[in-house]
Amino acid sequence: MREFSSKRSVDEALIAIVENDSCSVDAIQVVTGCTFGKGNLIFKDYGKHVYTFINRETRDALRISLNSSVNLEHMDPTWSRLRRKVTSGSATSVEQQDFRKRADIIAEKLMNMSEEDLFTVTHIDIADVPKKAQIFRSVTCQKCGELVSEHRVRLENGEKVCIPCSAG
Question: pTM for this structure?
């Protein structure tokens, strides 16, 4: 990522393609300046810890994937069990405290791992660089009356309706 870190993406030259919706995407937005609003943050719902960065001007591209050895559930199976209890609301205060302590230990281990141990970084060729975001006008859903981006409208019995209001 150092190759791309010299300039933040104010002009949308940098594109980030993320393959999950985890908190890691928050960090990518902060570090790169890529956002959904600017159209240079693209989400592909694959559930993978994979991130592709493309410089639109030079066509340089990096694919960064989290190594499978960085599996938190294998790093500390007790943390994993406690996590399920904490997130379900069934953990005792002692279990919550143990979970936080174990999470801190895992975080420390991750912070001390080398980049090579954490990630696989590959320079890749991109056939088609994603185009800049297109701005669409808003139209009113004829069922609920809320504004919806024109390219997301569905036609239903001749009416323009938003996706939640559409029958299919």
Answer: 0.77
